[in-house]
Amino acid sequence: MHRRHTALHVLKHRAQNSLMSSSASAPLSQAESATRTTPTMSSTAASNDVIPDELRSTWPQRAWTLAGSAAILASFLTTARLVGASGSAGADLLAAAMAAFAGYSLADLATGVYHWFIDNYGGAGTPILGAQIVAFQDHHLHPSAITRLEPCNNLHVVAGAVAVALPAVGAALSAARAHAAAHACACAFAACVVLSVQFHAWAHERRPSRLPPGVAALQAAGVLVSRPQHAEHHRPPYNTNYCTVSGMWNRVLDGCKVFEALEKVIYLATGVKPRSWRGDEDVK
Q1: How many Cα atoms are found within 13 Å in the side-chain-facing hemisphere of 128?
Q2: Where is the composition biased (Polar residues) (predicted)?
Q3: Rounded CA gap, 25 and 20, in Å?
Q4: How many CB atoms lie within 10 A of CB 136?
Q5: For the chain, what are the domain ranges?
Q6: pTM, whole model, 2 decimals?
Q7: 262: burial class by Cβ within 10 Å (0-12, 13-18, 19+)?
Q8: CA dist 192 to 133, 220, 236, 265, Å?
Q9: Do residues 12 and 138 make contact, with C-beta atoms less than 8 angstroms apart?
Q10: pLDDT by residue (tens digit) across 8-47?
Q11: Euclidean distance between CA atoms 63 and 164, whole angstroms
Q12: Per-residue pLDDT reduced to its tens digit, 176-215
């Protein structure tokens, strides 16, 4: 997580250095001044073909991502085995498919709740989550930086958590002789939570042509969180559209003002204001 936080700052520092260099150069003609645009982090980053080491995936990050992927695959195979071994495979397959959709839906809700909490509470000194809280606030300042992270650099933290948690959940379900649908729900939930980090990155891609084939179509269909929908989250005070799988829960959570109600309850109970009320990026 420290590498990821550092990576998000790399592009920021490059843009700042570019601004300093341009201000020290010779005066421009009036025509040049009229057409010149201020360098931004994204334009500076795009002009550099060499990917900084901080944005690349390390072997430990690849290992954790692989471990999480293996746990998800094992859960899927357990689901398939239980469906195949049942006396009513057709009915169980339908139940497993419906449960998988439920897991997909719950993952969208879970990412929204987690995103809301990380955005609004805690700071750099918060145990376990401190580095991620800082990184999320830096992401608000430099949203396009996430599109330059290599996949395993982006996925490894959540994948590592799934690598530990999903086998334990699967073992508990097997011990309880749970239906295949329960395994399907857990598998889909875990897979979508891991991939939500990549879905989030794709939602920040400015050029659809750079997306993998089919991703733009899935975004347009609402299967994955769309770029226009997630762009709404990146408008101060950053207090809407928190969900990052499909975004299906955003309308419900925002329309019913669920997070606003929770923020009021937390404030009345603890006196702590969410960052969205303060309108700042203070995470100290």
Answers
A1: 4
A2: 35-47
A3: 9
A4: 21
A5: 60-278
A6: 0.81
A7: middle
A8: 21, 18, 27, 30
A9: yes
A10: 554 444 444 443 343 333 343 343 333 333 333 444 444 4
A11: 13
A12: 999 999 999 999 999 999 999 999 999 999 998 999 989 9
